[in-house]
């Protein structure tokens, strides 16, 4: 699995998941419960992961809908 997106904003993660579902790309959200460790402040980002084979298509879907994804985490 590869990291597609890292964000502190849960609405960005939810929007990205909906976009990926519309493209039939499966994703997995990591670090969902890490806010327990930081006192529920939401300062630790969540990561959205996709399969290696879906990474290029997922990045294209994100960029087409205005979500910034970085490519330096390969």
TrEMBL record:
Indicate the segments forming the DUF2007 domain, all copies: 1-64
Return the protein name. DUF2007 domain-containing protein
InterPro entries, per the entry: DUF2007 (IPR018551), N-reg_PII-like_a/b (IPR011322)
Q: Which Pfam families match?
A: DUF2007
Query: What Gene3D superfamilies would the database entry show?
Result: UreE, C-terminal domain (3.30.70.790)
